[in-house]
Structure formats: structure tokens, C-alpha cells
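User: Predict the full complex structure for these chains.
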Amino acid sequence: MSIMTLRMAEIVSRATIRDVARAAGVSVGSVSRALNGGKNVSARVARDVAAAAEKLGYQPDFQARSLRTRTTGMVGCLVSDVANPLYASIVQAAEARLREAGLLMVVANTANDPARERAMVAAFRSRRLDGMLVAPGSDENDRAWRELAAGGAPVVILDRDVPGEGDTPWPAVLVDHREGARTATRYLIGLGHRRIALLTPGARMRPGRERIAGFKAAFAEADIDPEGALICLQASSMDFAQGDALELLRRDRRPTAIIALGTRILAGALRAARDLGLSVPRDLSVIAVGDTDLAAVHSPAITALRWSLEDVGRAAAELLLQRLRGTGEGQSCALLPVDLVLRESCGAPTAT
Amino acid sequence: MSIMTLRMAEIVSRATIRDVARAAGVSVGSVSRALNGGKNVSARVARDVAAAAEKLGYQPDFQARSLRTRTTGMVGCLVSDVANPLYASIVQAAEARLREAGLLMVVANTANDPARERAMVAAFRSRRLDGMLVAPGSDENDRAWRELAAGGAPVVILDRDVPGEGDTPWPAVLVDHREGARTATRYLIGLGHRRIALLTPGARMRPGRERIAGFKAAFAEADIDPEGALICLQASSMDFAQGDALELLRRDRRPTAIIALGTRILAGALRAARDLGLSVPRDLSVIAVGDTDLAAVHSPAITALRWSLEDVGRAAAELLLQRLRGTGEGQSCALLPVDLVLRESCGAPTAT
DNA sequence: CCGCACTATGGAAACGTTTCCAATTCAGCC
DNA sequence: GGCTGAATTGGAAACGTTTCCATAGTGCGG
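Assistant: Here is the predicted structure of the four-chain assembly.
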């Protein structure tokens, strides 16, 4: 046992800066300067230190360095669920950019639980992460955001309206869902639709709110009976139960077009249509919000609102890096565009 | 400027263990014991320390603690791409379990690039992460795995065959793809199919290899012309170009059934079938490997091989925690089952 | 009443860096 | 040749913990 432990320790223990200093015949201070600053270090020392470090396979200990420099080279990413394709792509892109800059990313899922959000913010802070990317589950977790601000580490918000501290808003990457929804709605109205349903999981968060606003705006500007704008909220976002969609499509004056969010809700709507024998796009036009595999591959292929998740992640990382480097203020917000990808799922409504 | 900096510092600086000690009128050592061990500490001290810590909002600094204890409370997770739904769910589940245990998870994408894999292993090691979950892009990045072992931190492999160091294999979570493929193939053979195509992106990694083995095994045990087992590999996994599938289905003696991996390849196959006017399941039976949204929602709904990604993540986290706690050896491997979910996409082949 | 075992406590060392400061060298210039 | 200033270097402090060690108290049996 003791031998075992010893051997383990032997294997694990690595060369420290002290070992390098001894091997190179200089002081630890010089080694540190040689390896980091490069400033005020003679050619001889630089060479010897480099050689010694190489020979010993020296790798600096980030923990120790962090303690001194107050920076960890890690940033946190707080989302409700990385398994959600929406977030997964954002996380992926952000990680790519951050890695380029030599930073590691730690992720945590909050499942939209305010308590957990606070706990993770505290954990990040306690670990002294250099910064954070967060997509709050609700815009109203005030306590968490105050704590977050108190930490002093830069924060970038992902597509949410979080009330800033005092006057200045948080740096954020926003997606122009409003304009997207407006475009889609306008497109359907242009095709002749007058009763359109917007299927979305609640207006609690920015994307939903903005979409609803854009949806309404399109009706308003077309000067059309606003009664035709059917907004179907849904409490739980897990499944826009096929049943809900069925109910909607069985109505007396059913909508002739549907704008459906994401994969699950879209799937529910498509199934409901199939079950009722409604053919897309003949009897029902469909637009997907978010360009998922399902939308692209379904037959008929579904017209979709698309925005680049990669851009969101990349922009967020960029904004955060800017703050971390403290290079001026730069821009503090990014607003990303939403495009309408035309496919086969929309047409003029048949007279009813 | 200097005032600004000062104020920042003031805000950021937090209570240290020293402050707590002073406030409680005890030594730092006692505070540490009171807050951590709880052993050898009098009731009075415990009370005073707790009160002082509470009043000052003391939160221990993980960096400093890490330096002393050689543990960071963080584990790394190395996958090719977190945006891949396959990995996303695994990561999500693993993170959940690890968070329960008070650990943070840092993720890194390797894009199957061996150099990057090595770099990230080094980065993890340099940061002294307590352990790692890795799904190598190739089983043959020997140098990376040797380095990985040298780090001394426990590692759990995700569904890969990585040659162990010396005799003992790495702890791993494996999915029984072989049995799954065998079941699916046997099912098709039972329906009367004699020419079946397996569409998979290469045999470079364990899942592909195992599936091929299971596929062949089913043919062998059914005592059927093995010429009917069509294995279609594909170099780039991004798109099993619809074209490839088209070519396959146009053949003289085309397969009457297809087993297709994932979302993209499955989509390519379905499109090709549609383009050729082949109806599923009448003219062509289809089984999806991996139960994706597309498979579940498509009409007809696609029969699929399903295994629980959540279980993979959870099991991996569990295995890692076991190692971290050093509680005996416990089990070192988990083999997770694959189920065949029967839907509407398979039938008896029409006589050709 | 004295030692004795045991518990609680304070002080200090240690973890591996970076960075400050003082000391030394060195070149250049009068 | 001595003086000045810049460049380089070594030594040590500091970062915030945990843990070891020695010491002081405390109860208890002889």
C-alpha cells in the first residue's frame, strides 16, 4: 500500500518551476520571466531555460498561476440544457472560439431552475472563472444576476432580456426573432392567409416575446382582422402535445397556416395534420421556427426561419473575449438576423 | 482611472479565511477545520466561525484550495462535437450526475483531430482536472492516451476500444451495438429479406465495427447467402449523399431493406427512396440506427434501434466518481443494451 | 496531587506560481 | 577611470488555502 502510494506520487509529480531553475542554473524568477514575459531576459538565460524546460517536460501548473494572477483561463457557460440542439450548437461554436484563445469552457445545465442558476453562478464565482456566457431560463432571476454582477467577472447574455445593473445593459448577443416572425407572417399573409396560428412555448423569455410582437406587427401593418392572429402558448415546452394541435385544427374556423417553434412542436403539428388528413401545403401551410433536421428532411420540406446558431456562439465568445482583454469597450451588443428559407410547405390557402 | 481601478478591486475582493478568523477571534487553522473537517473543533469555535463566515459572506477560494489539496473539483469531457445530438445527450446526463457530486464539467470539442485531442488532454492535465470522460475520434491516437494515462487522473472511455496500458483495460461505458445490429438484421431476415444494406460511416471506430460484426453474424447464423449483406461505408460522415443511396437503390439487384445510421444518412436514404418512387415499407424496409426525432416523426414512422444516451452519460459519470472516490475498484466497464423499437417502416419484401 | 492521554488550538510550513524590490552587471560617456 | 542609467538577475513576498506540529488545556485514574 505505502509502496503503491509512493509510486503513484512519483508518477504523478511533475517538474516544477524550481526544478527547471535548478537545471538551468538560474533563479525561479528568471525562469518565470523567460517563459512568460520574455522581457528583460538575456539570450543565454532564455536558451538555457527553454532547454531545461524541454528536457524536464515542464508544464506550468495553472492552479498555482491562477492563485497569483487571479485568472483561471476558464469561462463558464450556463444554459438550461446542452442537449437542446439550439444550445448545443451555440455551445459548440463558443467553445471553438474560446479554445482558439486558449480558454477552457465549463458548462452547466440549469433546467431553468432559478435555484440552480444561482447555485451555479456561485460555483463559477467560487472557482474564479474569468467570465461567463449565460442564457437564463427566465429574465427575472434578479438575485442571481445581482450576484453575478457582484462577482466582477464579465458576463455575456445569450438572447435574453436581463435587466442591467443601473443604467448600462449587459453585453448580449440577441437574435432578431421579431423581424423573423414578421417576415414569415407577412409572407403567409401575402399568400392569402388570414387565419394564422403561432405555436410557441410561452412569452416568458425574450425569443417568444419578440416573435409574438413580430407576428402581431405583421397583422397590424397589413391592416387585416387581428382576430386571425392565433397565438397558442404552451406552458411546458417539452411537447406541444399533438392533441393541442389537433384541437386547434379541428376548430370551426381553423387556421390555414401554422408557424411552429422548434422540433417538438413542429412534429406535433405535422402529426396532427396528418391524422386529420390535411395535406401540406394544400390544406395547411407550415413554417418552422428554427431550421432543424426535421424541417429540412421532411417531405414536403418545411419552409423555415433560420438564424445561425454558430454565429450566436461565436459572437458571444468574441464579446466575452473583448471584455476579458479589456480592450476599450467595443460594441456591447450584437443583433443577429433571421432568414426565411423557402421550401415546399407553404402555398395559397384553399377557399373555405 | 486609479479611483476606478480601486473601486473595482474593492468590489471584487472577497472575504478570505483570514478575515473570518479575525472576526471569529480564532486562528485560520481553526476556521479551516471548523468549516471542513468538523473534527477536533469545540462547539464554541464552530458556532463563532459559522456566524462570522455567514456575516462576511465568506466563500472559500477553490483555486487556493486546489493548490494545497491537489484536487480541482472539475472533470473534463472530450468529444468530437457537443453539437452532435449523440454526444449532447451524453454530456448533458454526465454533467447532471457530476453536478450532484459537486463537480464542474469542462467540455472540449476535438473534431476528431488527433493533434487537438492531444492538446486538450495536455490542457486538462495542466489544469489538474480530477478526471476525464473521453470519446476519442479514433481508437489509435496512442500518444494521446499514453499521455493521458501518465497524467494519473482517472479516465473513462465512452463507447470506444482504446487499447489499455499494459494489461488492464480502461474503464469504459460501451453500447452493445453488435447485438443491436444483429437483432435488427435478424428481424429483417425474418420478414423475408435476403438483400440488406447497412449504411454506416466507416469502421474506424467501435460502434461501426460492432454493427458490422452483428450484421454479419445475423447473416451467418441464418445460413443465408452472405452476398446479400451489403456494407456501404462512407468516408465523410457529414452526408451520406443522397446520391450514394440513389446509386445503391438503382442497382440491378437492389437491397429490399436498409439499415441506416443516424439522422443524415437516414435522411439521404429516405429521400433517395422517394425520388425513385419506392414506397416505404412496401418497396423498401428501413431501420434507423439511433432513435432520432426524424425517425419518430417521419411518416411512415421509422423502426429504430434505440439505446439510452442518458444512461451512457450517467454510467460514465458514475464510473468516474467511483474512481475519484477510490472506493475499491468496483466494476470497470458497463455494457448498455440496444433495443429495437418497432414502428411502421418494415414489411415483407415484395417478390422481385 | 501528579502524571497521562487526549482534545482543542495557534502558528507556521507548504502548495507552485508571479511579481516586486534590491542588488549586480555592463556599457556609454564625460 | 569614475559616474550614470539601463538591463538583467536573485531573493523573497504574496496569493488563500490545508495540514502538520507543538503547545496548552482538560478530565481522569492512581
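Residues 206-222 of chain A form the longest helix (17 residues).
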